[in-house]
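Write out a record, fold above all:
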Amino acid sequence: MYLTQDLELFHEYTVTQLLFKDVKNATELRKMAVNGEIKGALINPSMVVDAFQILVATNKAVHLHKIGKMKTRSLYSEIIFNLSPTNNISEAFKRFGISDSDTAVHIVLVHNKEETLNIDDIISKVDGQQIDVGQVSEMTDTAKIKKLYKITPQEDKCGTLLDAVVCRMAIKDVA
């Protein structure tokens, strides 16, 4: 149901992803995240192509956190920011964070391997149905993603949508 992976470059960290649909308490979840009651990134799954996209954003966020170069105030807000193709923080939150009207949420947790993670505590806070993280692509709004990341038809023919999105995320700081 959830996906847990170690970060290759930061062996001491593990990333856990959870996906929920039919969520009825998005407003409360967002408030809990803002207040620090949920230590995780709450992401709108319609803007996610694949769990790998989240892993890339998380890896970059952990890297920037470790070297003290984050552009946002927390590791979890940095994950949301890293999903965006632009450097506008508020725009990233609007597009990739959850809103009060959302009925699905993708939760990303980053934890030290030595820490015990109480996933059941997080799950109990969500009034919705947990589904397998692999199903995130079924929630993807492909048209919205192509427009936001400015993916051309030519690019679409020679590679996957995930490739194009991850490339845009990777070069955001370079371009």
Q: What stands out?
A: The beta strands are 3-6, 13-21, 41-43, 105-112, 129-131. The longest strand covers residues 13-21. The chain has eight helices and five strands. Residues 51-66 form the longest helix (16 residues).
